[in-house]
Amino acid sequence: MPRHRTASEQVSAALLDAAEIVLDRDGVAAVTVRAVARQAGVAPMGVYNRFSNKDGLLAALAIRAFDDLAAAIDVGPDDGPADRLRRASRGYRRYALSHPARYTLIFDVGSPAADPTSPVTTRGREVFETLVEMVRGLTLRRGLDPVHAAQAMWNGQHGAVTLELAGVLQTPDAAATFDQTIDALIRGLQATRG
């Protein structure tokens, strides 16, 4: 049976919707309690009552961004492990390019995810675990730990996306270059067939 949101959850969701509008339109630095209250058409106290302060608001936004990223990389087990990883990586890229401010919120310097005790960090680890499970599906080179392999995979895809967002690519077709990067990473992780 589907769960119905309470009025309180609906108000919090509406405030987060307003915060996402401010974030997407004006960037992370513009997300303030006053700006979100103005966007939502409520008094600033309404935002404070839900999120305590700006840091609480940014943390809730970051958790939502991680939830959306998790949905973007959730590709199901239809194909083999390498194809699944490729599709998930493309979903990661699509999310970052479609929502650059949200991507910056969760991965830039000063991110709420940088605090190891934050629920944002916990959610980020859960999303990373999805990547670990996909990497575990590969036949990895002997001695290669799946967590380290997933970190290497993430380093590569994150670096490629970050360069693309910054507009500093040296090749004309960013999508093709991204796919080649992912293919190279997967080949580097897999055991050679002998």
Automatic annotation (TrEMBL):
Presence of keyword Transcription regulation: yes
Key words of the record: DNA-binding, Transcription, Transcription regulation
Record feature DNA-binding region, as residue ranges: 32-51
Residue spans crossing the bilayer: none
Chain ranges of the HTH tetR-type domain: 9-69
Any Pfam family hit: TetR_C_33
GO MF, one annotated term: DNA-binding transcription factor activity
InterPro entries membership: Homeodomain-like_sf, HTH-type_TetR-like_transc_reg, HTH_TetR, MT1864/Rv1816-like_C, Tet_transcr_reg_TetR-rel_C_sf
Entry protein name: Putative HTH-type transcriptional regulator
Originating species: Mycolicibacterium chlorophenolicum
Lineage: Bacteria, Bacillati, Actinomycetota, Actinomycetes, Mycobacteriales
